[in-house]
Structure to design on (124 residues):
């Protein structure tokens, strides 16, 4: 399975990449929403997307909306992984089609639990 990690922080891409790689995912990364959208347009078909909210070029919420408007990616599971902690932001992301929401900072166990809930890791 393939996971797309989208975050403007190299450190965060590395951390998330290591977590999902350890769970059997092949990881591709993008530095912002436009970069991710270009990869999806070019044919990437990840089963999982981990999106930061605050990024240059195109933020994670805008990317979420773009992905959910494209039936090609309807089956992809999307987790927002962000510092945005306002309940309205959480509600907006879930209403726009995010499957789960993780607030930074997080632990690898939190990511694993979310993936279990989504049926993408053992113990689901």
């Amino acid at each position: 399975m393939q996971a797309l990690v989208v975050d403007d922080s190299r450190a965060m891409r590395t951390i998330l990449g290591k977590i999902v790689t350890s769970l059997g995912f092949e990881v591709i990364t993008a530095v912002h929403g436009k970069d991710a959208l270009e990869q999806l347009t070019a044919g990437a078909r990840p089963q999982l997307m981990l999106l930061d909210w605050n990024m240059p070029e195109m933020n994670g919420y805008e990317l979420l909306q773009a992905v959910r408007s494209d039936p090609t990616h309807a089956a992809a599971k999307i987790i927002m992984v962000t510092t945005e902690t306002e309940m309205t932001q959480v509600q907006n992301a879930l209403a726009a089609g995010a499957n789960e929401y993780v607030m930074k900072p997080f632990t690898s166990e939190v990511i694993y639990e979310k993936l279990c809930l989504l049926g993408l890791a053992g113990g689901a």
Summary: Residues 2-117 form a domain with the Rossmann fold fold (CATH 3.40.50.2300). Residues 10-22 form the longest helix (13 residues). The radius of gyration is 13 Å. The helical segments are 10-22, 33-41, 60-68, 87-96, 108-117.
